[in-house]
Amino acid sequence: MARRFFTTFILLLVGLSGMAAFGQNVPEIPLFPVDEMDSFGSVLTVNLGEIDLGVLAPGEEAKRTFYLKNVGPGNTEWFAEGPRGWKLSESQNLSGLIGQTPEPLRIHFVYVREVGTSKNRGCSLILRLEAGGEVAVFRREVPVGELREELRFHYYGGTISVFFNVGLVEMAPAPLLVVEPLRMDFGTIRPDGQITKKILLKNRGRESLKWKVGVAGTRGMPATATAPVGRYVSFRHEAAVTGLYALTGQIREDMELTGAWAEEGGYPSGQGEQNTLRYRFTGTGIRLYFWKSPEGAPFSVFLDDQFIDVIDGFAERRERVEVLIADALPDGPHLLAIVNGGGKVTLEGVQLLGKPIQRGPRGWIRVFPDSGFTNRETDYINVVLNTRQLAPGIYGDHVLFLTNGGEADVEVFLEVAAETTPRFLDVHRYLAGSDYLYTTNPQAEATRIQVKGYRHTGIVFRLFAPGTPGTTDFFRWFNPLKGDHYYSYDPKGGKPLPGYLFEGSIGNIGTSRLTGTRELYRWFNPTTNGHFYTTEQGGEGITKKGYRFDGIAGFVR
């Protein structure tokens, strides 16, 4: 009865939204009968009521994540209604079933292009809403300027709203350079290694942007006085695809998170008083990089468990900020803690003081392409670091952009570790029902293992430590409805993963055969939708349980 009522309501609401989109009068109707609302007792809440998407120019986009939660008893169905005046360009509507576990929803807003005449310019927009593997896509054309829209979420107990605002600007007549990021952290790698990252380059102007790029002091590039001061450590993770922030790579060893942290552009973004980030570092000082925003509020900073300051995270517009936390600490290990005060805080990274930064020999940084023209497209500049001639230590330098639309200085950082025998991580296998949990840190997951009733079945293979040349992160996902864990070195999983929640990296895996490695085979059960991983080609007899061979997941010890 209730489900039939809700389905009828959704169909009616879709029809009314279509009438509104074409300018027809929409009759006023109650969302739910009073007795329906009282009988279910559901109360849907949202962690963000106002979402700032920043200022966008043609060709730019913004992504934000927020969470729905039912604080009433049981589960409740919900349905998302797009902003009024927007046209649903794909037939799929966004709906779901939600309980006390927060459900992530993602806004993906794209400013496609300018439309109209030079005297009356407008904006062609696309809005994507994503949740639980479903996507709803809306389109609209609006004038240049400020835009504030409402998203409504209907459920048995009523309706809640989430507002988003964005500033839409025209392209400048002259070329205008945009570079991201302005600081690059290449992490820690061993000698005889090579690593590549990309710099995004855009033109916010209508005229063509002519540019050249190179390392400071090389041919055609001005010299800078010194190497950067203090090593920059980025909190960004590369697998920014799920809306949930998870610890990956080397940052796993130095950071602890408490509460629910979303990702915003790959960076940790916390909302609510229960969110805490702790970061361990060594040095004599530390500087914090973060973003202020309209959703921001004061947050507290602690150093070595001592209160340091309250920092205001509010700004009328989203803006990048840096704050010196301390610069005269005893040289040694320290602990930085960021504690939310109820608002939103998005953290970019830190700069560690106290260790000398060296410049590498000529040619240790290679940049390509090193010149070109950019119009409406997005270009990517490859920055390749080669450690073959570098002694252990911390290195930094400047990659400069010289253009007819401005200049940019991108700081580059790398730590070269001493040559040692590669470290390996034991992988423990746990089993609960048909769910196989693989972890390299069972102590950190002890509560989950105990609560879910996982049974330890042994150490089954070994992964590589972060930074090992020839390896990459081995990521883990979990589907709470199917009760299944999935693993892949592809940040997007290598296939659609509707309903799976990203849980971060458990270590590094070889993507090709390295000395002393063996294949890690993946098996899949089409009946239970479960996955199983083993180094035994025969699957440890797993075929008797209905599993089928599903390929090679990588190479392990």
Output the keywords.
557 residues, mainly beta, Jelly Rolls, 3 domains, six-stranded antiparallel β-sheet, disordered N terminus
Verbal overview:
The protein is mainly beta. It has three domains: 2-168, Sandwich (Immunoglobulin-like), CATH 2.60.40.10; 177-416, Jelly Rolls, CATH 2.60.120.260; 424-556, no CATH class. 6% of the residues lie in helices and 53% in strands. The protein contains three helices and 40 strands. The strands form nine sheets. Strands 1-3-7-8-9-5 form a six-stranded antiparallel sheet, with no helix packed on it. Strands 16, 18, 19, 21, 24 and 26 form a six-stranded antiparallel sheet that branches. It is globular and about 65 Å long. Residues 1-39 have low confidence and may be disordered.
